[in-house]
């Protein structure tokens, strides 16, 4: 018995990941791309990833890779992709006119009850959906890359998004093993990228001003802050670094405020500072032409980290039962 059909539009990096998430919970997925060869490459890639996940004991859901794979259909017709789907996930390139164009077509093809969800990283849901007849059915579900190992997903409604669209999207994401974070209103950059760009901005200024090298900034993150951030955020970190938040505030608020006032204004990343960072990264991560190798290194580490976190969560859950 099928649990229902989901249409995925765009079969690049994120379209593939969403497809894998949905099939892991037993949904049928019909995958569409303007380039037919992309959907074929996507299927091959998904199969390889399913087998690798099985080997690492990180497969989601209860279905075998074979059973999950059987749930994928590909099509060269957008109409066929969305026909009969209760949920449509759009994963086309991050360009407003491309997204608006795709949604204008889908809007005319689907039933008003269908949920129309975009993977956009930064385009406002209101900007994509204004003008759609079913704009109240539109929402953003922005995953963290790679979604399989970094499950936090930002859910961003427009002011006109129906409440049930938000609730059903959250429920679906949870069902497939993601961890949704809902924004109460849309904001430029959403939350993940606002935090990420705040970090990048200060790191950039520290390098520009000759305080530290790019390698040292990465060491502070990967061997310092990042060790904690792999399993807790800045607030829990602060809470534990003092005796609760009120004590933290008493002890450090003045100092933090003082340092924050010392941060410079935003600066465009370009010119000699950017070239210097690039040279340092070439030494650290290898030249651009070999970047694929370093990406594989990153993914092996992410996989190991995801496994460690999963095992520790399981151990914690067993401990709390005793
Ligand atoms: N890559 C990331 O790290 C990441 C993370 C989170 C969100 N996102 C967002 O997800 C979306 C997709 O990004 P991606 O990295 O998968 O891009 P991608 O370039 O890997 O894939 C995009 C796919 O869309 C297809 N496409 C282009 N125009 C189309 C159209 N009109 N109809 C159907 N298919 C079309 C392309 O052929 C391609 O296969 C973007 O909005 C991006 O911002 C990306």
Automatic annotation (TrEMBL):
Domain 3-hydroxyacyl-CoA dehydrogenase NAD binding: 5-184
GO molecular function: L-gulonate 3-dehydrogenase activity; NAD+ binding
Every 3-hydroxyacyl-CoA dehydrogenase C-terminal domain range: 189-256
Keywords linked to the UniProt accession: Oxidoreductase
PANTHER family, sorted: 3-HYDROXYACYL-COA DEHYDROGENASE FAMILY PROTEIN, LAMBDA-CRYSTALLIN HOMOLOG
Family: Belongs to the 3-hydroxyacyl-CoA dehydrogenase family.
PROSITE patterns membership: 3HCDH
Listed name of the protein: 3-hydroxyacyl-CoA dehydrogenase NAD binding domain-containing protein
GO biological process, one term: fatty acid metabolic process
Pfam family, one: 3HCDH
Span of the signal peptide: none
Keyword flag Kinase: no
Gene3D superfamilies: N-(1-d-carboxylethyl)-l-norvaline Dehydrogenase, domain 2, NAD(P)-binding Rossmann-like Domain
InterPro entries: 3-OHacyl-CoA_DH_CS, 3-OHacyl-CoA_DH_NAD-bd, 3HC_DH_C, 6-PGluconate_DH-like_C_sf, 6PGD_dom2, NAD(P)-bd_dom_sf
